Amino acid sequence: MRTLILLALVGLGAQLVDGSLGMAYGVTSTTLLLAIGTNPAAASATVHLAEIGTTLASGASHWRFGNVDWKVVLKIGLPGAVGAFAGATFLSTLSTEVAKPVMSLILLGLGLYVLLRFTVQGLPARSEKPLRKRFLTPLGLVGGFMDATGGGGWGPVGTPALLASGRMEPRKVIGTVDTSEFLVAIAASTGFFIGLAGEGIDGAWVVALLLGGLIAAPIAAWLVRHVPPRVLGSLVGGVIVLTNSRTLLDSDWIAAPDAVKIPVYVLIWAGWAAAVAWSVRAHRANKAEALAQAEDPADGTTRDPADDDLAPVRAADPA
Fold first, then answer.
1. Of 115, 117, 200, 213, which residue is most buried, by most CB within 10 angstroms?
2. What does the pLDDT read at residue 165?
3. pLDDT on residue 268
4. Region Disordered: which residues (predicted)?
5. What is the CB neighbour count within 10 angstroms for residue 127?
């Protein structure tokens, strides 16, 4: 029972992060399942089964708050489903001894990306570049494959790419990525069921993760306009880096002694603390700048002080 309660809390926390950042539900949940000894393929399958429900609820909540671009959902979600099915099939063929360090390595890379992306850069500036199918299709394929093989990756791949494209405002990028993940979750789950025949998948764990995510989904959709993404991204990225570094150092690939592990952990903790502190300062500075610009828009632009790390939005035409 204690394990199920913990899983429900993890599902709740992961969905709050995912619904606010557009990433990290799968990465966070899978990292925990690996840490308690779950088979890598079964861990990813468990998370993706739970995501069928959480992404449906999250998508509905984001749609209610006007955070979804349905054209982009289909253009990125369908190729994402193809990539996810292929990734699930691939992961199911690997032995546990090989799959666990491979998945931890992928998760470590994604965690480093999330940590550095939000600490150093925050959310990128907007522009008026168009979103084309030739950009969205390969993005969906790569994101879906990474999501299934790494137990997460749809958000870390898709969200920054769409933000960088500049066509959509951040809240719609997050809502669109979360909504399209429903197609990815279905395809990945189907691939795992074919590859694993249901072996190693605990239905109670799926329900626990799902319940936590369902509770958090509408809250996250509302918080997306208020939470500081830069700080949250640094916090979550550090958790993922620390946990998967431990898994890799304990694996048969490395089998590092304590004399090596302890300095590595100290370095990670120190870097993580510095990253969070930097993000907090940057958030406060950007907020102060936004407030000053809103009071005196010398360049003819306006900016919503409630948003964090956002580029100026063009003022509405008075005509």
1. 213
2. 64
3. 92
4. 291-319
5. 10
Residue segments in the chain with a per-residue pLDDT below the cut of 50: 127, 305-319
Residue 227 makes CB contacts below 8 A (sequence gap 6+) with 20, 308
Report pLDDT for 13. Answer: 72
CB of 176 closer than 8 Å to CB of 63: no
**Whole-angstrom Cα distance, residue 144 to residue 132?**
18
Question: What are the sequence ranges of the domains in the chain?
Answer: 2-311
CA 19 from centroid of its chain's CA atoms:
9
Distance, CA of 50 to CA of 57 (rounded, Å): 11
